[in-house]
């Protein structure tokens, strides 16, 4: 199990606390420092069953500067979104946990973290 975190994020700290309390075996990836490649983002999207716009933090300053709210959300624009997430990793929703069964969850709630633990 791997968890993508931003240490400054309270949701990430909460997820880590719960994983620790449950004695989970996991690896931490500080994705702002160890930026995911486009292939890694594609892989996580496949595990999540989501599209890149679904995990983009559109309220961030970088998102506003890029104008992502105006970008099409279709197959033809998918790579543009993935490139933006790679070039501006702060736009990636967090935390993301990749579960043992090959799936992943955006673990913003205790329920989502527990879901990942049960996989």
Describe this structure in words.
39% of the residues lie in helices and 12% in strands. The chain starts with a strand and ends with a helix. The longest helix is centred in the first third of the chain and has 12 residues, at 10-21. It has a single domain, classed as Glutaredoxin. It contains five helices and four strands, in the order βαβαααββα. A four-stranded mixed β-sheet has the order 2-1-3-4, sandwiched between helices. The protein is globular, with a radius of gyration of 14 Å. It is α+β, with helices and mostly antiparallel strands. The mean pLDDT is 96. The relative contact order is 0.22. Helix 1 packs across helix 5.
Write the layout of secondary structure elements.
Layout: E1 2-5, H1 10-21, E2 27-30, H2 38-48, H3 61-66, H4 78-87, E3 96-98, E4 104-106, H5 110-117
Parallel strand pairs: 1-2
Antiparallel strand pairs: 1-3, 3-4
Summarize the structure.
With 119 residues, this protein is α+β, with helices and mostly antiparallel strands.
CATH class: Alpha Beta
Uncertain residue ranges: none
The profile of the biggest β sheet is: 4 strands, mixed
By secondary-structure content and strand pairing, the structural class works out as alpha+beta
Oligomer: single chain
> What name goes with the CATH superfamily?
Glutaredoxin
Give the rounded overall mean pLDDT: 96
Radius of gyration: 14 Å
Distance between the ends:
10 Å
Q: What proportion strand? A: 5-15%
Identify the CATH architecture: 3-Layer(aba) Sandwich
Helix content: 25-40%
- Please give the order of strands in the largest beta sheet: 2-1-3-4
Could you tell me the CATH topology label: Glutaredoxin
